[in-house]
Structure prediction request, 275 residues.
Amino acid sequence: MKNTVVTFRNAKAEGKRLSMLTAYDYSTAKLQDEAGINGILVGDSLGNVVLGYDDTIPVTMEDMIHHGAAVARGAKDALVVIDMPFMSYQISVEDALRNAGRLMKEGHAGAVKLEGGEEVCPQIRAIVNAGIPVMAHLGLTPQSIHAFGGFKVQGKTEAAAKKLLEDAKRVQEAGAFSVVLEAVPSKLAAMITEELEIPTIGIGAGNGCDGQILVYQDMLGMFSDFTPKFVKRYANVGEVMKEAFRGYIEEVESGAFPAKENEYAVDDSVIEKLY
Ligand code: KIV
Prediction:
């Protein structure tokens, strides 16, 4: 069944938990879709896990459109949410609207996601008014990593917790259909979840959220540069891949690959005429 923002809204009302994963290409999106995932985020974590940057800052609109459109082609039933990259929405409401529109028209998104609370509410309002669903993102917002001074759990002091709760209410009022809570203490995330009418999607925010999201390379053991505590590894695909790569290298070197069954045939008479 096709997942839409209505599915997300109804899931909260019905107490059904939502599953989301990131994807950045057609084949992965297709596999996740066939497995029955509710939503696929084309995250700007693309910068780290696909493009090899240290953070998400260098990711461009062109990157997001290119990968977003590939994911959209693979996702039949999942809601495809595409991240708005750094500086594609912070400068002005007009910029935000134009870039959100591009992610829909060229990236074939079902919704867009942007980071921030009260300060980006004018952008959320304008994008939603244009008929584009917005997922908000609070807590550890990776585009502000330099302001945070690193990957740190957010909302640990009374003032920070209060601000997070307020921001969550503000983005809901501005029209966001859902909000990601990243690296937030689980009790605070559960409280925010209870206070909101829109579903919360947690990543490092405990079990009290309405849904969960993980970066797929993290949960498959394919990315070892940095593994946060909140990641659960569901398979060691990285090792399986390395083993297969080693096997291939060995067989190429020994001449065992390609074998007869991997070859194409041609009539001997054709070859003989070439001599
Ligand atoms: O870019 C991303 O992958 C994200 C998730 C971590 C929520 O924003």
